TrEMBL record:
Domain of life: Bacteria
Domain (Pyruvate kinase C-terminal): residue spans on this chain: 355-467
Protein name as it appears in the record: Pyruvate kinase
NCBIfam families, A to Z: PRK05826.1, PRK06247.1, PRK06354.1, pyruv_kin
Keyword annotations of the record: ATP-binding, Glycolysis, Kinase, Magnesium, Metal-binding, Nucleotide-binding, Pyruvate, Transferase
EC annotation from Swiss-Prot or TrEMBL: 2.7.1.40
Molecular function GO labels: ATP binding; kinase activity; magnesium ion binding; potassium ion binding; pyruvate kinase activity
Family: Belongs to the pyruvate kinase family.
Domain named Pyruvate kinase barrel: residues: 5-322
Native source organism of the sequence: Paracoccus limosus
InterPro entries recorded: Pyr_Knase, Pyrv/PenolPyrv_kinase-like_dom, Pyrv_kinase-like_dom_sf, Pyrv_Knase-like_insert_dom_sf, Pyrv_Knase_brl, Pyrv_Knase_C, Pyrv_Knase_C_sf, Pyrv_Knase_insert_dom_sf
Length: 481
């Protein structure tokens, strides 16, 4: 099975998509990566979903990546004595540490770290930003506020603090337990929520011990400000537009999305655009025109992957949502304007031998009659560099490492193929030609570009590039033992 598009699709699993038939249908409709949301469901439920994914993978013969999304610290108000209360613009309201049930004038905010960071003039947002308050006075155990945008407030509603960097670790005790569970399970990627600083990513990396790649979710203003440093220590990025649109003016999110996507491409690290992409398909079999345009915009920008959340996890039409994304992607990528945009945004990188080689591979493929670029890799780095070039021809990512094989399922354009351990370059050429033919990228009359590093199975050794025929008889004739 091969995809007829370059962008990847991430589908979240949940109550609507936990059985074998549905997960298999999601994969066949176009899902390349499955997301396990650790905010919902028990470890046993997530293990059952993981086992089904691996069963689908084995039966299809195609690698599938699994992304475990850690919840992160959740900031919530306490409970109210008499149910919900309506807050009105201009009224005074207090947050404090007192665990007495709340009233129309106050409620507990059981997070002393917030009070330690607040200053007069700071904003507090409640219930996804529907309620907004400005801090007038504060101390180590209280914040006296004025309501600037009112609405109903009720038990355990979430709180956002956009103006300050909170002295909170990105990993709660629950996240640490979930991280260890996910790594033992065998997930390929860990998505880290509530990232504010590069140290948050380094902490997760230390706990993961190389068992999973680390993907940082950008959903806090502090993360946007520190993005360059966060990107350097991350293996990938998710533009999590939900909280980002709550804590920042909603009109600032599109340019941030574009800026972050381009930075990730320049760094040759995968980027996912996420949240509310086909939100109406939770209840409707058809998306809105605006949603289709939103998905298309992310693809035109060069995102490695686009993601479904509740649409596939809890919606009534999970398979249709994946199929819609697949159709939009095919349509966009067949548009001549897409190539113009992608190629005009290409940034020249010539800092290393590998940079120069992948640029040369792309130029050769686009100026001669080449059917595919076949890149051998042990870590996935070479394939990421090829994908950064966004070549017009398919990328066949070849590796003997299961870890790299699955992680590359998130990389733009990578068609991942498991290969045996190799000792000679001619073996690499023969295997590449066979893969190109087997998966329909070429026939015996075509040529491919083959990239590899000698000695094999050592990361960072990409040093050979060859234009080779797909006819194995010609390979043996031109490459004697």
């Amino acid at each position: 099975m091969r995809r007829h598009r370059k962008v990847k699709i991430v589908a979240t699993l949940g109550p609507s998509s936990s059985d074998f038939a549905t997960i298999r249908a999601l994969f066949e409709a176009g899902a390349d990566v499955f997301r396990l949301n650790m905010s919902h469901g028990t470890h046993d439920e997530q293990r059952a979903r993981y086992d089904i994914i691996r069963r689908v993978e084995a039966e299809s013969g195609r690698p599938i990546a699994v992304l475990a999304d850690l919840q992160g610290p959740k900031l919530r108000v306490g409970a109210f004595a008499a149910g919900p209360h309506d807050l009105h613009e201009g009224q005074a309201f207090r947050f404090d540490l007192d665990d007495t049930p709340g009233t129309a004038a106050r409620v507990q905010l059981p997070h002393p770290e917030i009070f330690a960071a607040l200053e007069p003039g700071s904003q507090l947002l409640v219930n996804d930003g529907k309620i907004r308050l400005r801090v007038e006075a504060c101390g180590p155990d209280f914040a006296d506020c004025v309501v600037t945008a009112g609405g109903p407030i009720s038990n355990r509603k979430g709180v956002n603090v956009p103006d300050v960097v909170l002295p909170l670790a990105a990993l709660s005790d629950k996240d640490r337990d979930d991280l260890e569970f996910a790594c033992q399970l065998g997930v390929d990627w860990l998505a880290l929520s509530f990232v504010q600083r590069p140290e948050d990513v380094l902490e997760a990396r230390e706990l993961a011990k190389g068992r999973a790649a680390i993907l940082s979710k950008i959903e806090k203003p502090a993360a946007v400000r520190a993005f360059s440093e966060i990107l350097k220590v991350s293996d990938g990025i998710m533009v999590a537009r939900g909280d980002l649109g709550v804590e920042l003016p909603v009109h600032s999110v599109p340019p941030i999305q574009k800026r972050l996507t381009r930075a990730c491409r320049a760094a040759a690290k995968p980027v996912i655009v996420a949240t509310q992409m086909l939100e109406s398909m939770i209840e409707s079999p058809m998306p809105t025109r605006a949603e289709v345009s939103d998905v298309a915009t992310a693809i035109y920008e060069g995102a490695d992957a686009i993601m479904l959340s509740a649409e596939s996890a809890a919606g009534a039409y999970p398979v249709e949502a994946v199929a819609t994304m697949d159709n939009v992607a095919r349509s966009v990528e067949s548009d001549p304007t897409y190539r113009e945009i992608i190629e005009s945004s290409r940034q020249a990188k010539r800092q290393t031998v590998a940079d120069a080689m992948v640029a040369a591979a792309r130029e050769i493929a686009e100026t001669t009659d080449i059917s595919a670029i076949c890149a051998y890799t042990s870590s996935g780095t070479t394939v990421s560099l090829v994908a950064r070039e966004r070549p017009r021809v398919p990328i066949i990512a070849m590796t003997a490492e299961d870890t790299a094989l699955r992680r590359m399922c998130l990389t733009w354009g990578a068609h991942c193929v498991k290969t045996p351990e190799l000792e000679r370059f001619k073996q690499a050429v023969v295997n590449a030609a066979k893969a190109a033919r087997d998966f329909g990228f070429a026939d015996e009359t075509n040529q491919i570009v083959v990239m590899a590093g000698v000695p094999f199975n050592q990361s960072g050794t990409t040093n050979i590039l060859r234009v080779a025929p797909c006819d194995e008889r010609l390979i043996y004739r031109t490459d004697p033992e």
